[in-house]
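Fold it.
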Amino acid sequence: MHKLSTSKVVIHTMLGGMIAFNALAQKIPVNYDESKMPSYTLPDPLVLPNGKPIKSKEAWEKTGRPAVVKLFAENVYGINPFPGPIKITSEVKSVNENALGGKAVSKQITLRFPEISPTLTLNILLYLPKNKQKAPVFVSLNFMGNHTATHEKDVFVTENWVNSGFDKTFVNNRATDASRGIAERRWPMEAIIARGYAVATAYYGDLEADHTEGWKTGLRSVLTPEQREKWSAIGVWAWSMSRMADYLLQNESQIDKQKLIAVGHSRIGKATLWAGAEDPRFAIVISNDSGEGGAALSRRWIGETVEHLNTQFPHWFCANYKKYNNAVADLPVDQHELLGLIAPRPLYIASATKDTWADPKGEFLSAVEAEKVYQLYKKTGLGTDTMPMANHPVGQTIGYHLREGVHDILLYDWEQYMNFADKHFEIK
């Protein structure tokens, strides 16, 4: 996309494993120097494609927001072929009344979609506080199977395809009992339960394995070729989160139905933002280190680019997105507009100091620009355009922090998310 020479692409730590760029991706220039970044102009979320300005929240909801959603669906995340109510059957496979050393109740639930596929399932691991009060719930996908989020022996090991590069315990793209708890640092369940929150997680590979042919055994396998090209793996993962919400709202009496919180890290952070944009039932939306195609501005040439995404992970986004590999300035949207689609609901964006590939500054600036939409609702977003120092959260209806360290989601991040939710849910 650019002729400037920069440092070579190296193996990059993501999602708990080491993923090497393929040969084509290695040839794409990478820039980390702000002084070398070309100037760019962001599309205005409050101007319709026909040039008409949006001046009120009513106009935004009636005309502006649908127009922006349509542009993202057609050009980035894909068109959902299942937009209506989905028939779901659920089966509670196990209940542990003394989970986490007696601190929680855990359930394992299998969801099926009989009108779509007779074989596909989405498997939820749910932790509930034992106080029996209605609990807010974090809804999130995980990267390696529910069993990797905890060392508890009763949690089922996923039987679906897993990325063998993520951990040495995986054999021939299958998880083993030895992989139990390998991602536990990312899921501080006891700390979350202690704050009165529930957690629902499911393996993101249940409905589409994360590789170029993953669609063949997943949800997109039931589509026509045209429908499949118009949707994406990220679209499927976002859809999965909404089906988790369906189950929780319809079947779990201890869940506070007004307090569902969508949260996701890295590529699941991208899916989480899209899930939040498509599904207003998520009362708070949280993106952790989601970078390019997530919270970071696409028009900034820092770290990962649209071309990198579509070259290394061609299945993540819809086919149309590839048109902008070398023409990002022609993309009719940018990621600040995605963040604006969450308004007026609370939104939190997080970055890490050493995660330069995800462009922390681009994530922050995207949150700054999203405030224009929040102002239609007379809400203050970040309330600042000065990027904070590490470990100093800022913001009001939009929150942001820059954590010291690498691309990851850790206890510090979760603590900020719970603080943010406490504030907006008025939990004392």
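The CA atoms of residues 162 and 173 lie 5 Å apart.
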